[in-house]
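Message: I would value a second opinion on how I read folds in token form. Give me a protein, with the fold worked out from its sequence. Write it directly below this note and I will take it from there.
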Amino acid sequence: MSPALNGHTEIHKWCRNFPGTRDQVREARQFVSTYLGERPEIDAAQLIVSELASNAIRHTRSGFPGGHFGVTLHAGSTLLIVAVLDEGGHFVPRLREAADEDLGGRGLHLVEIFTVRWGVYGDAAGRTVWALLPLTSSGPVP
């Protein structure tokens, strides 16, 4: 059995913790790639995990020295849950309006575009930002 998502009706859950450093965002994208295999949703899922992991490192204690963030992927027959657990901080993730000259502030808008729903659970001690990505039934399955 391949470690990737194997079928349309199976439910698989993978979890992994990463050091809270910028280079680990690439590792989180690779984790998603390994999980999804050749599914057509791979690009959207990698973008989502990249945005959520980057936010965890940039805006929470996960990005402090010794910090960590976790990624959970949980697929059913029609939806993929992408969740990033951080070590908490003072601000709750939310959509914001970015000015044209701003370098940031657009990531959660991208998450909203590619998902059917996203949200935040937790408090200043630790939060999970999750997103629901629809899975196509016609995609190739490893």
User: Anything to note?
Assistant: The chain has one domain: 12-134. Helices lie at 23-36, 42-59, 107-114.
